[in-house]
């Protein structure tokens, strides 16, 4: 017979056994769909950012086909770079998070959350700068003005969505809620 330590007065009570509580952690294999990420606010906002990036990509390419040489060409090139690369990297991150590729590379869930925070903050900053530069130069565009405005608007909306990802990961501890793992 094993003894159990009483937590109230630290005495040993014979006849009781110590057993670990049942494990509540979920083990996922590589390739299985991570429903916790998809259903979390950060996951939903990341997917929304991907959709907005795709819409911004289409608007940017429509502007490029309508008006090849625009007055604010350098800001247009920078905005196009930010929209295309953010679309690509957000898509790669969503695929890695949804299909549990972090388990394949043996990355801890806290490290994956920090990667998501840094990734979202990085693209939030660059989309803010590129959309602001694009917004100041849309008045110089003659033909294709609406495509430039749409691309700028989608850039700002994607920036707000990625900012929401960062806030949704940082906010729960400040409001006294437990921050559950999404990976």
Structure description:
The chain is mainly alpha-helical and 183 residues long. The chain has one domain. Helix content is 66%, strand content 3%. The protein has six helices and two strands; from the N terminus they run ββαααααα. The protein has a two-stranded antiparallel ribbon with strand order 1-2. Residues 16-24 have low confidence and may be disordered.
Summarize this entry quickly.
The protein has 183 residues and is mostly helical.
Layout of secondary structure:
Blueprint: E1 3-5, E2 12-14, H1 35-39, H2 41-66, H3 73-98, H4 101-104, H5 109-137, H6 145-174
Helix pairs in contact: 2-3, 2-6, 3-5, 5-6
Order of helices and strands, N to C?
Answer: EEHHHHHH
Main pleated-sheet profile? 2 strands, antiparallel
Judged by helices, strands and strand pairing, the structural class is mainly alpha
- Tell me, briefly, the overall form: elongated
Question: What strand line-up does the widest sheet have?
Answer: 1-2
Uncertain segments are 16-24
State the distance separating the first and last CA atoms.
41 Å
Rg estimate, integer Å = 24 Å
**Percent of residues in beta strands?**
under 5%
**Helical content, roughly?**
55-70%
Count of DSSP E strands?
2
Number of helices: 6
Mean pLDDT: 79
Total domains, how many? 1
List keywords for this structure.
mainly alpha; 6 helices; 2 strands; 3% strand
